[in-house]
Amino acid sequence: MLRFNNIGKNYAVGKQQVAVLQGVSGELAAGEMVALCGPSGSGKSTLLQILGALDLRYQGEIEFAAKPFPRTAPAATLLRRQQLGFIFQRFNLVPVLTAEENVMLPLQLRGWSTEQQLQAARAMLTQVGLAAQLQQKPAALSGGQQQRVAIARAMVSRPALVIADEPTASLDSVSAQQVINLLRELCHQSGSAVLVATHDPRMAASCDRTIRLHDGRILMEAAA
Ligand SMILES: Nc1ncnc2c1ncn2[C@@H]1O[C@H](COP(=O)(O)OP(=O)(O)OP(=O)(O)O)[C@@H](O)[C@H]1O
Fold this sequence. Notes:
This protein is an alpha/beta fold and 224 residues long. The chain has one domain (28-57, 72-223): P-loop containing nucleotide triphosphate hydrolases (Rossmann fold), CATH 3.40.50.300. The protein has helices at 44-51, 73-83, 99-109, 114-127, 143-155, 173-190, 201-206; strands spanning 2-13, 16-28, 33-37, 59-64, 67-68, 84-87, 161-165, 193-197, 209-214, 217-223. It is globular, with a radius of gyration of 17 Å. Adenosine-5'-triphosphate (ATP) binds next to strand 1 and helix 1. InterPro entries: AAA+_ATPase (IPR003593), ABC_transporter-like_ATP-bd (IPR003439), ABC_transporter-like_CS (IPR017871), ABC_transpr_LolD-like (IPR015854), MacB-like_ATP-bd (IPR017911), P-loop_NTPase (IPR027417).
């Protein structure tokens, strides 16, 4: 579903170019949940930005659903809206919207009718265990509940690829385990590929496979 080949990324620090990713290659199949691990600064977030079509300035080739990855901002925006879902460490919900409205957002961007958006958002929030919190705003929810809303938002449109950056890092142990179980269940059920950057060994152990980065290179790839 997703193949990336020989990805390189440099940042300019002063007058020098610093290589943050060098010759990184790999692939993700539909319905596969892959952990992206490695020490702080190894390049995980940088790779997620590139594979999430948020950073278009990189070397190498990416193929998504057997097509070349977008190289222009409008094409990248379209791909993100239509095919990708995102989950962040700090949830990034819209604070003035209810849980239900937050989950409706990606469907609104895809042009669904309000009735279809409502039905899908309610079904998805019920699936993540938040049927009683549909009308709550993020501030009234716990961290674990907010992250479950964020997962519902990322997956409600059945995206081909979900990019998750440290989704359990802000959560207590029990909420983290719920989020891990939920991601795994939804990934396998929906057929979305999930790439999750994580320092959490329980998350990595729940994934189908691990890609390990060190100093911007792939150190090893192993079954979890
Ligand atoms: N905008 C930038 N300009 C210059 N250097 C950057 C920039 N963004 C990231 N870097 C550098 O790139 C390297 C990789 O950063 P990245 O955030 O991808 O690592 P990471 O593995 O996600 O780390 P962490 O686990 O701490 O989130 C680091 O050395 C970082 O300082």
